[in-house]
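Entry type: protein chain
Record version: 2
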Amino acid sequence: MKYFILFFIVVLGFMSPIFAQDSEEILVNSTPISIFKGVKIGEKVDGVIWRGGIVLTSDREEFGGLSGISFTGENKKVTFVSDIGNFFTGSLIYDEFGKLLVFAGVRFSAIKNSKGNKLPRRFAKDAEAIDSIYRNGKAAAIRVGFENLTRVADFELVDGMPKGAAKEIIIPKALSNERTNASLEALCIAPANSPIAGSTLLITENMKDGKNIAAFMLGVKDRGRFSISRTLNMNPTDCAFLENGDLLLLERGMSFLSFKMQLRLIKAQDIKPNAILKGEVILKAFGKDIDNMEGLAVHKDVGGDERIIIVSDDNFNDWERTLLLEFSLK
C-alpha cells in the first residue's frame, strides 16, 4: 500500500519559520519495497544486507531528477539535489523494526547562485552531487557539485535546510574548464578517521585519465589528481565515506536496454593523490530491481550500525522511477 504522508505535521515542527518565503511544502507519496534480487528484508544479497526501500512519487512537476543525497539534520533529515536546480529536504521515517517507511515533511527550494538569485538556465542548474560539512559533530553546511557548467559551491544549513547564496569553491582548471555532462558527477568529504580527513573527492563521470577515469582531491595536505579504475560499460555516479574512512563508489551502466549498477568498497589506506582506486565490488544489480541509480549516502541506524542509501534519478520520465534502496554491511 501507499503511505500518504499524513504525519508530515510532526516533521514540520523541525522546520524553521524563516523558510516560509524561501521554500515550499509538497506532498510526496512513498510505496514500500520489500524484495530485492529475490531476497527479503534482513537477508544477505552479495556482500551487503538488504534493509528495504521505497518508491517516491509526487503530483508536483518539480519533484524528480534526484541525483544526490546527504543527511543534513537531526531526525534523519536529508537533502536531495535535483538536476534541474532544486533542493528537496525532509525526514526519513522508520518503523520500530528499522524499516524505511516514508519521506515526510518535504519542502523544496531553488538552488541559488553567488548573488542569491535562482540559477538562470538549465545549463547552470545541473546539480549532481552533495555532501555535508560537519562542525562540532553536526552538519553545518553542504557542498554541491555541478556538471555542464562545472563547479562546486557551499551552502549554509539552517535547521537542516539549505539557505542563502552559493559560496563557490576553487577547483582545478582541468575540471572547471569542462562543459559537458561527462564532467563532475560524484563528490564526498573524508571523515575524521580517514587518512585524508577533511579532503573533498571530486570524481568525474567519464573524463579520461589514460585508461582510467579522472578524479581530483581537494585538501590542505592531500591535494591533486587521482583516478578510478574503469569498469567496462560502467561510470561513477556518486561516492560516500564510511566512518572508518573506507570509500563507497556507486557506478551505473546500461545492459540490454535496462540499467545496471554496482557498489565498490575501497580501503581507506588506498585513497591518496596519484593513486588508481579499484577496490572490491560488494553489490551488483540490473533490471527491474533498480533504476538510474545516481545518489549515495551513509548514516547510522538506532543500533549504531552503518546503513547505505542509494537513490535513483527518474530524469522526469514516466518509464523511470525515484527509488530509495537501503542496505547495511552487517
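Comment: Residues 8-328 form a domain with the Neuraminidase fold (CATH 2.120.10).
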